[in-house]
Write a structure and sequence with these properties.
2 copies of one chain form a homodimer.
Chain A lengths: L2 H6 L9 E7 L5 E7 L1 H10 L3 E4 L4 E4 L8 E8 L6 E7 L16 E2 L11
Chain lengths: 120, 120
């Protein structure tokens, strides 16, 4: 499968974007979620560095070019519908612009824990 | 923080939805991504079972009610922007409707692996 064949098998939303989940390859931690258009996917698949489309700035965003917190590609998978990517990375420094390693650190919501032995 | 306070701190898209990444608590595997509106988040936080909004069927979808492949909540975190959730679950059976454990199984795209020692 070529890169162009892979991209043509993806389903982008009405805005031309799909979500990319970023998981740290060494630790399996989920670091962040960001958005890619076809060109961002192409750059990610072919350059070894992760590139997104910034919805707030309306421009391509190669992670780490400003912050130094680069993401190197270890592997990319699509989901069963082809409308979400899972990008496994080697993360340099903090993935989150707030300085935490993951964007999900220390942001726990109150949730009832489900137990299959108690809840149907 | 109450459940309603938590929900009011979330940022839903123009369609009233946000993406929820689902990660298996025991293995750290990323299983799937699906969508929630405020009510799906409320049900997920308060019942111990994960509920989504189905964009294709336009209805609430409590994972496993049809398939038996239930997801029990272990914890829920939001990201730094409050526009993505990470739901850690105990997964019964296969998360993917195709029968694979994760929706990302066996769907690898061709990607150049990046090496910080070689690529700037």
């Amino acid at each position: 499968m070529s890169v162009e064949q892979a991209i043509s098998g993806l389903k982008f939303g009405a805005d031309g974007l799909l979500p990319a989940i970023v998981q740290e390859d060494d630790t399996d931690r989920v670091l962040m979620l960001a958005w890619m258009d076809a060109e961002a996917v192409r750059r990610t698949l072919t350059t070894g560095r992760v590139t997104y489309w910034s919805r707030s700035r309306n421009e391509y965003w190669r992670k780490g070019d400003t912050s130094g917190h680069r993401q190197y590609v270890r592997g990319v998978e699509m989901d069963c519908d082809g409308d979400t990517l899972l990008v496994r990375v080697e993360q340099i420094g903090a993935a989150c612009h707030t300085g935490t390693h993951s964007c999900f650190d220390d942001r726990t919501l109150p949730a009832v824990v489900g137990d299959p032995r108690e809840i149907g």
